[in-house]
Amino acid sequence: MSQLYELSEVAVQNGKNGKPCWLIIKGNVYDVTKFLSEHPGGGEVLLEYGGKDATKAFKQAGHSADAEKELKNYKIGEINSAAPIQIQPTSIAASKPAENTISEDPKPAEKSSSGFCCC
Ligand code: HEM
């Protein structure tokens, strides 16, 4: 099973201040720290995307099939995209019973307010 990372965890590994340089390509997380000095396109372009999603840049650079194969040497895991999707339905479901209980309140309130008309 692949290690799952949050976007925020990857974001801090930006290659700055002696930190490792991780980047995201097609939902996978790569540690390119040791590859910085070997990359034919230079280490600077990798550092530019340190901690970020480099999917577009990787495609736009027109990498060869060999470069695509090389990706797997640096893969350390995947982005955990399931977590935020799971949170939404539970919060919506939890709010339903609360709405029902509120809707019962206005009726007795209306009756009591009409009884207090004393002008
Ligand atoms: C782990 C990720 C990456 C790997 C394994 C990788 C690998 C390679 C390889 C093997 C080449 C030689 C040409 C080829 O075979 O296509 C190359 C060239 C190049 N790469 Fe990457 N690359 C990665 C990420 C990136 C990223 C994020 C960029 C961002 C812009 C980039 C920009 C370039 C450029 C501009 C060249 C062309 C260099 C030249 O021909 O002068 N690469 N890369």
Radius of gyration: 26 Å
Category from helices, strands and their pairing = alpha+beta
What's the count of strands?
A: 4
User: What is the straight-line distance between the termini?
Assistant: 75 Å
> Tell me, what's the shape?
globular
Describe this structure in words.
This protein starts with a strand and ends with a helix. 47% of the residues lie in helices and 13% in strands. It has helices spanning 7-11, 43-48, 55-60, 65-70, 82-104, 106-115; strands at residues 4-5, 22-25, 28-31, 75-79. The chain has a domain at 4-82: Flavocytochrome B2, Chain A, domain 1. A hairpin with a 2-residue loop joins strand 2 and strand 3 (28-31). The chain is built from six helices and four strands, in the order E-H-E-E-H-H-H-E-H-H. It has 119 residues and is of the alpha+beta class. Strands 1-4-3-2 form a four-stranded mixed sheet. The structure holds protoporphyrin IX containing FE. The site of protoporphyrin IX containing FE has 20 residues, from helix 2, helix 3 and helix 4. Residues 93-119 are annotated as: Disordered.
State the main characteristics:
119 residues, alpha+beta, Flavocytochrome B2, Chain A, domain 1, 6 helices, globular, binds protoporphyrin IX containing FE, heme, metal ion binding
Task: Write a concise synopsis of the structure shown.
The protein has 119 residues and is of the alpha+beta class.
Draw up the topology in text.
Layout: E1 4-5, H1 7-11, E2 22-25, E3 28-31, H2 43-48, H3 55-60, H4 65-70, E4 75-79, H5 82-104, H6 106-115
Parallel strand pairs: 1-4
Antiparallel strand pairs: 2-3, 3-4
Bound molecules: protoporphyrin IX containing FE.
GO cellular component, one term: membrane
Protein name: Cytochrome b5
GO molecular function: heme binding; metal ion binding
